[in-house]
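Let us work through a complete example step by step.
Step 1: write down the sequence.
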Amino acid sequence: MSTTYFVAPGSIVRRIWGTADTVLFIFAGAAAEFALNQAVDWLYFTGRLPADPLGRLFSTVDYARRIVFADRAGAERAIDAMAAIHAAVEAKRGRPIPAGAYRDVLFLLIAYSIRAFEVLERPLTGPEREEIVAVFCRVGQRMGIPELPTGYAAWQAARAQHLAAHLVPSPYTADLYRQYRRHLGPLRYPLLLERPSRAPSARKLWPCLPRGQRMGIPRAAHGLRRVAGRPGPAPGRAPRAQPLHRGPVP
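Step 2: predict the structure and record it as C-alpha cells.
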C-alpha cells in the first residue's frame, strides 16, 4: 500500500521548503513583517516570544517543514497540535485569536515562499503558484480558518487587503525589533532591513543562531527588502500583552 502525502513528493512546495537558503529567506521575511501585524500582541501573551524571538519563529518554520514532508496522517497530527496550542492560549486569555490574524500568517508564508524561490532560483509558473496557495490553504482548512482564497488571484487580492489593513506599527513592533537586534547583534541585525540589491549574503546571519535552530543550514540566503522602519532607539521592558484593537480584526 503506497504512502499518501499531504504534499506530493514532486511538489514545488517541497522544493522550496527543502532548500536551506529559501527557508532562511522565509524566516527573515516572516520575522520582519509580523512584527508590524496588529495582532502581534498575541505573541506577547505567553512571554515566550520576547524572551526568544528567533527560537519561536524557527519553531513556526519547523512546524511548516514537518507538514510539508510528512505523510498525510503525520501532517494532520502536526496541524492539529498547532491548532491545540493556539486554542490553549485563547482559553487562557479568554477570547479567540482573530481569524484575520490566522489568515495573515498563512498569507505571509505563501508570499515569502513565492518571493524566496523567485529571488534565489527562477520565476514560478502559474500552476506552481496555484499549488503553493492550495497547499497552505489546506493547512488553514484543517485548522478551521474561514474565508480562505480559492486560488492565486484571490490570494493576491486578499493579501493586498490584509497588508493595507493589518500592518500597524505599535509598541510591540519597536520592542520586537529591539529583541531581534539584541539576539542577532549590531552587525547582523541590519541584514534584516537591507534591500536585496545591495544586501550582503546572509551567510553572516547563520552562524549567530543557536546550534539547535540552524536546522542543518549549510549556507544562508540573501537579505530581503525593508518591510518596516527602524524601531525606536530607547531600550526597555517588553510591553504587556494588551489588545491593540477592539473587537475582531477588520
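Step 3: interpret the result. The chain is about 55% helix and 0% strand.
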